[in-house]
Amino acid sequence: MTPRARTLSLALGTGIAAAALHLVILRNGIWFTPDSWAYWEGSVSILRGEGYQWFHGSPVQRWPPLFSCYLAAWQWLLGVSGETLRVAMVVSTGVGATIWVVFLSATMRPGRVTAWCCVFLIAMFAQVTRHLMAESLTMIFLPVLLLLSVHASEASTRPRFMTLSLLAALVCAMLLLTKLVCASFACAVVVSSVLNRSMGRGTRVAACALFAIVALAPALIAKFTLATEWIYPVGVGVAKHGPVEYLFQIARGFGDRFAPAPLGVVVWLFVAAVGVSRLTPDPGRARVRICVAFCVLTTIVMYAMFNLTWIFAELKGRFLYFVPLLTGATILMVVHTIANTRLRAVLIVLIVALPVGKTIKYVIKGRAPATTMSDEKALESHFIRARFTIDPSYTASPPRLRDDGKLLVSTPGADWVETQMRAK
Q1: C-alpha–C-alpha distance, residues 356 and 210, integer Å
Q2: How far apart are CA 409 and CA 378, in angstroms?
Q3: How many domains does the chain have?
Q4: Do 209 and 160 fall into the same domain?
Q5: Last residue of a domain, one of 337, 372, 398
């Protein structure tokens, strides 16, 4: 089997396995967060030709529309139901895992995609998409952006460099239309421009200017077309948490993927240190160093954004999920180069054990645990059963709990919004 055929088979196998596992985890239903309600209600409104708005008529604020458009497309094909949402999330999981294998194989040379690396990716993707969240799309676009940035850093001619920068800008535009915090990913192009010393300063400045225009234009057009306000309060002192607390959140977010807190932080630092030690001056590792620089710069930019903006969520988990994913996958790709067999075994166990263990737990239970409230309270209003339909009269009566299976849930758009769910 040729290397290309091997990579393709591994990518497809990983994607199919991740999708199948995710389908089993979501067999009973899917969790909704405040963000999920925004995306889902916006998608149904788009499907009905009512614009990007909540069910009660107000425009959806601060949630860009691309993920809602993605959900609307699936609901147009298969109907508005919990089953359709499961299909949308499962497909995004499979596509995302496939693209990440291709990206890693093309980037992390002379490393190779190993079976342990695929197992790690399957487990990580089965967890990141356990809620109805836009991260399922960002995890598809991000490796494409990184791959384009890596190739742009190696471009030897001006046309190729500008073309790759333009393509990266288009991908970043998709990211900005998915989540606003993806603005921090723009540093990927900065990294590629700075590291490509074969291009003149004027060319690099032009590439950055082109990137800014192309990446921002679709988001600005969508903002003014939909007449929505996407920017959170900005300024010194408006952040929900302090600078030190955000640092602790980042550390916990990285470590929680490898071991329970506070041990997880120590484990992640150990894994990351071993990874950095493997980044020798070998030219084949230059791409890995670019990805490391991307992770560092993106984390710094996102940390600054959270300190200067009021954002309800904590700075961990889904916002920086790609960092432990990229860290773990990279180590597993070069672990075969470590001569010490005991160290190899320890690294594999530290990286793979917890993600796989959590995924097995979710598979057995048929859902992931609630993240912000007790399971009992969350199941009442934020766990959408696998089968439900929409009652067209969802605004016709005051909110109340009913005996016919309809749920009344609290959403960001209003104190109470009837979401016309009926479990079958």
Answers
A1: 42
A2: 10
A3: 3
A4: yes
A5: 337
Q: Which residues are within 8 A (CB) of 389 and not within 5 positions of it... i.e. 6 or more apart?
A: 80, 81, 421, 422, 424
Give the pLDDT score at 17.
Answer: 92
pLDDT of 377 over the 70 cut: no
Residue 397 lies in a domain: yes
- Are 250 and 272 contained in the same domain? yes
pLDDT mean over 361-376:
60
285 with 319, same domain: the answer is yes
For 192-215, give one letter per residue: b (16+ CB within 10 A) or e.
bbebbeebeeebbebbbebbeebb
CB 108 within 8 A of CB 102: no
Residue 222 is assigned to a structural domain of this protein: yes
In a domain, 383, yes or no: no
Whole-angstrom distance, CA of residue 91 vs CA of residue 98: 11
**Among 84, 109, 24, 31, which residue's Cα sits nearest to residue 382?**
31
More reliable by pLDDT, 374 or 353: 353
- Range(s) of the domain holding residue 222: 152-231
Q: Are residues 174 and 226 in the same domain?
A: yes
Full-model pTM: 0.83
Question: Does residue 215 share a domain with residue 309?
Answer: no
Query: What is the model's pLDDT at position 367?
Result: 63
ω before 262 within 30° of 0 (cis)?
A: yes
Position 98 pLDDT exceeds 90: yes
Select the more confidently predicted residue: 7 or 223: 7
What is the overall mean pLDDT for the chain? 75
- The residues near 333 (Cβ < 8 Å, ≥ 6 apart) are 104, 108, 111, 112, 113, 114, 117
Report the pLDDT averaged over residues 127-153.
84
